[in-house]
Amino acid sequence: MESKPASTRNPRERSATKPADLFTASDVARFCQVDLKTIHNWADKGEIPHFRTPGRHLRFRRLDVLDFLRKYGYAVPEALRQSKPRIVLVDSDASSSGGIKRALSKRFDVTSFTDPVDALVSLSTLQPDALLLDLDMPGCDGVHFFARIRSLEATAHIRNVGLTRRADMPGQAMQAGAIEVLDKADLAKLREVLEHVTGLDR
Questions:
Q1: What is the Cα 45 distance to its own chain's centre?
Q2: Is there a single domain that holds both residue 128 and residue 182?
Q3: Residue 71 located in a structural domain
Q4: What is the CATH number of the domain that holds 179?
Q5: Arithmetic mean of pLDDT, 141-166
Q6: Strands 130-134, 159-163: parallel, antiparallel or unpaired by DSSP?
Q7: Mean pLDDT over all residues of the chain?
Q8: What are 52's strand-pairing partners?
Q9: SS3 83
Q10: Structural domain harbouring 41
């Protein structure tokens, strides 16, 4: 069947085609029940992370909006829960990686890599909500990897979660930019943390 031109689609159809991970200033104003000028003032003051399009229009990433709403006690709207959050998993152990993907696949869109370099190159294109990194991978300096992600403008917004069984790693990884460091065998806790970070929990 031939699709309708965009101008003839009803509003519900148009909203379904809108990227679920980016929001306009008008969207955020609606979530916070304030006027548009207030959102621009908050953005100018650095109260809420944002970026501008080539046409200088404000855009807000979903997780930044979520963090802002939670910080100031606003209710989290359904619009922030409508799509599967994107997760990148970096783990050289195929068996472990498969188990993690199965545990998360119902609620998350998971892309996995066995090579950290391949993952790093792909992050700016994939723009995931969160990155899961096995800190115990041979030949991979996970702490440096996290620090590098945080230092790049295109990836600094990604929420980093470390997976390890080493007692000495959590502190170092958190200093490098990880928001959580978990035992990779605790899949229930991992799912719980990601659901909270990405706004899927109620």
A1: 23
A2: yes
A3: yes
A4: 3.40.50.2300
A5: 91
A6: parallel
A7: 85
A8: 58
A9: coil
A10: 6-81
At how many degrees (to 10) do helices 94-104 and 187-197 cross? 50
Q: Which two tokens stand for residue 105?
A: 């696949």
Could you tell me which residues come within 8 angstroms of residue 115 by beta carbon, excluding any fewer than 6 positions away? 90, 92
- From 81, 97, 118, the end of a domain falls on 81
Burial class (CB in 10 A: 0-12, 13-18, 19+), 157: middle
At CB < 8 A and 24+ separation, what contacts does 30-34 make?
31/65, 31/69, 31/74, 31/77, 31/79, 32/69, 32/72, 32/74
- Within this chain, do residues 40 and 110 fall inside the same structural domain, yes or no? no
Q: What is the pTM for the complete model shown? A: 0.72
Domain shared by 98 and 122, yes or no: yes
Lowest-pLDDT choice from 1-5, 19-23, 75-79, 178-182: 1-5
Inside any domain, residue 202: no
Beta pairing, strands 130-134 & 86-90: parallel
- Token look-up 């929990």 returns 201
**What is the number of other CB atoms lying within 10 angstroms of the CB of residue 165?**
12
Q: Domains in the chain: how many in total?
A: 2
Rounded distance between C-alpha atoms, residue 104 and residue 195, angstroms = 10
Rounded Cα gap, residues 49 and 61, in angstroms: 8
Q: State whether residue 26 is helix, strand or coil.
A: helix
